[in-house]
């Protein structure tokens, strides 16, 4: 890319949900812009992979708050199929060692914990979510495991004030052809440069200079939508430095949630179901039998367990899952399960995790990360969302808001120039 004075009105860094929604808005207003994406594909942490004819979402998979989630309407408009079947996350479908009475008691303990979370008073200071557990509670490990799936981290790491701000309608649907496929189709027609990692944003002069692995370009405004982990680690260098952004991003680490998809090579399993591998432990998988009726099992692993298994390398997820499922279904049945796909988000160089949570004492970091700098640098992404963090719709809304701010800033500057 050859450098020319003020190449663009705006440059968007990152072609995930936030960057794509911002691009659509800038496109409607006629601004000149381009999107720079370090990956060889668009979608960011949304990615659908087709395996043996199945659409597997390796990143985000659920339309959370689907009744008000913009991706629900977008998916329908693009011809995708929204499955409105309610999830059965709250039910342990079967486990001979986990009786009906135990399941009812576990559900009551979980509901009581979340009620305490919703009612928590943080006016005199934030604190970690594990302090809301019932002392010596029988189901504390299970509740902690749930946190690893929701936050990608155990309760001791998670801010109560931040988690309490999450707004959820309770409606959760899925897209049969894939959430990642939907987001990709949404952004396909936008001007995107793939395999183009940004290394430096120099905002010291009248135009912003952006250096990339494909060259350099200049712009009047830059919108940064990369994961908070990359800002915290200064994977992109700002000149002059932005220590307030680095500090805010450091308070919003990315938790880890990884998936394992196994093929079912036996008829000796129930037709459907959702269950913990071991509801008495924090380090346990969460499993869904035959999603969309497909002959697979989706395994979900979060927090320290996800990091540990990812670090252990080849077959670690499969071996762990087989060990847990053998207890439920027998070793002979589980031996027929085959490896189809798995994720490794912690070691992904372009995200270094799955989605953000706020550390205790850093519940205001989202607003600080999202705040524009000098009316020229703008920030968006799920970590910038106060009430819908960790989701693709949260990312979408922050991208839209940042694009609106860029447009208003450009209009204001043009009006000043035209004034007598």
UniProtKB/TrEMBL annotation:
Keyword set, alphabetical order: Auxin biosynthesis
Catalytic reaction annotation: L-tryptophan + O2 = indole-3-acetamide + CO2 + H2O
Pathway: Plant hormone metabolism; auxin biosynthesis
KW NADP (keyword) present: no
Domain Amine oxidase: 131-407
BP term (GO), one: auxin biosynthetic process
Top EC category: oxidoreductase
InterPro entries: Amino_oxidase (IPR002937), FAD/NAD-bd_sf (IPR036188), Flavin_monoamine_oxidase (IPR050281)
Keyword check for tRNA-binding: no
Pfam family, one: NAD_binding_8
MF terms in GO: tryptophan 2-monooxygenase activity
EC number(s) per entry: 1.13.12.3
Highest taxon of source: Bacteria
PANTHER family: FLAVIN MONOAMINE OXIDASE (PTHR10742), LYSINE-SPECIFIC HISTONE DEMETHYLASE 2 (PTHR10742:SF410)
Family affiliation: Belongs to the tryptophan 2-monooxygenase family.
Name this polypeptide is given: Tryptophan 2-monooxygenase
């Amino acid at each position: 890319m050859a450098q020319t004075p003020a190449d663009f009105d705006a440059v968007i860094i990152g072609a995930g949900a936030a960057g794509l929604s911002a691009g659509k808005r800038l496109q409607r207003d006629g601004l000149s812009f381009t999107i720079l994406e370090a990956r060889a594909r668009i979608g960011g942490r949304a990615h659908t992979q087709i395996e043996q004819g199945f659409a597997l979402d390796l990143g985000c998979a659920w339309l959370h708050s689907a009744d008000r989630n913009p991706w629900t309407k977008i998916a329908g408009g693009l011809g995708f199929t929204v499955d409105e079947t309610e999830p059965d996350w709250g039910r342990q479908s079967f486990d001979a060692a986990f009786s009906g009475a135990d399941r009812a008691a576990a559900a009551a303990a979980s509901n009581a914990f979340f009620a305490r979370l919703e009612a928590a008073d943080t006016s005199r200071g934030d604190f970690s979510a594990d302090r809301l557990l019932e002392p010596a509670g029988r189901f504390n490990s299970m509740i902690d495991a749930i946190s690893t799936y929701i936050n990608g981290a155990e309760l001791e790491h998670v801010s109560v004030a931040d988690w309490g701000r999450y707004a959820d309608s309770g409606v959760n649907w899925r897209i049969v052809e894939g959430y990642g496929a939907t987001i990709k189709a949404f952004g396909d027609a936008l001007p995107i440069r793939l395999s183009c990692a940004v290394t430096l944003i120099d905002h010291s002069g009248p135009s912003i200079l952006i250096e990339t692995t494909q060259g350099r370009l200049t712009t009047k405004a830059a919108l940064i939508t990369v994961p908070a982990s990359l800002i915290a680690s200064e994977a992109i260098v700002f000149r002059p430095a932005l220590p307030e952004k680095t500090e805010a991003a450091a308070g919003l680490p990315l938790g880890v949630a990884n998936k394992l998809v196994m093929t079912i090579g036996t008829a000796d399993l129930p037709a459907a179901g959702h269950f913990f591998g071991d509801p008495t432990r924090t380090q346990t998988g969460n499993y869904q039998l035959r999603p969309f009726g497909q002959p697979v099992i989706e395994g979900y692993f979060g927090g320290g367990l996800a990091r540990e298994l990812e670090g252990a390398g080849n077959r670690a997820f499969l071996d762990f899952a087989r060990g847990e499922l053998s207890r439920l279904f027998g070793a002979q049945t589980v031996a027929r399960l085959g490896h189809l796909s798995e994720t490794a988000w912690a070691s992904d160089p372009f995200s270094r995790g799955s989605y953000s949570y706020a550390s205790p004492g850093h519940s205001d970091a989202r607003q600080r990360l999202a705040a524009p700098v000098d009316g020229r640098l703008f920030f968006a992404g799920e970590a910038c969302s106060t009430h819908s963090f960790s989701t693709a719709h949260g990312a979408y809304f922050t991208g839209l808001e940042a694009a609106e701010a860029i447009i208003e800033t450009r209009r204001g500057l043009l009006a000043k120039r035209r004034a007598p």
